[in-house]
Fold:
Amino acid sequence: MHFIVHCLDRPNAVQDRLAHYDAHKAYLASASVRSVISGPLVADDNETMIGSLFLLEADTKDEVLAFNAADPFNRAGIWEKVEIHPFLKRVDNR
Structure:
């Protein structure tokens, strides 16, 4: 099953995000759920990071919730708002 994880940073979190980036990246590489695609959300200036988006593959939503809770960005309080939804992928033009 696929899940979308949409995370918005708290205001002025860019420096904290950068400080925890290496831990976040290492965590994603060893995660128990499969990242299909992920990356930072950016502001309208196309540069300033304001959040994260993941398309994950997991058996259950509980696995995704646990994955998100243990992410170094989440543990550091960088994300102010997180939404997790099941996703039915219809088209994949890769």
The radius of gyration is 13 Å. The beta strands are 2-9, 34-42, 49-57, 79-87. Helices lie at 14-19, 21-29, 61-70, 72-75.
